[in-house]
Known about the structure:
Oligomer: single chain
Number of strands: 0
Amino acid sequence: MALKQDDNFMNNIRDFIVDGRIEAALSFCKSANRPIARMMEKGIKRIGRPLKEIEESIEIVGKFEVYKLEKNIIILAIVAGIAPMFGFIGTIIGVIKIFHDISLAGDVEHFNGFCRFIYQNGFQCCRIAGGDCCVCCLSLAKYYG
């Protein structure tokens, strides 16, 4: 879809320029709020100047557009790094709940002592693992942020 829109955009720009309607091409670029439109606008404004100057101005605008696109990519990196930790924290919370429920099920005489042992030791392990995940999430956020 985006490639088709870019093809149409470039075809429209070409048609405007071939017809000598430079102002219409500039207006069309200004109305399209996309990186390619801003790059083309800069190039169109330089029509009549040496080709090297036009190329350099488009490259400069392109570098600014890449910078603007990349500056928020850090948020995606943070989410990608922390998301598995949140999943693991959810698993640990679920396991803690299971151990707690097992320890409260005192109906079965044979397993009562065993369930309490499992709950106490399992809860300790899960609590430590949960704390480790929280520290990991905070560390990733600080590292990328």
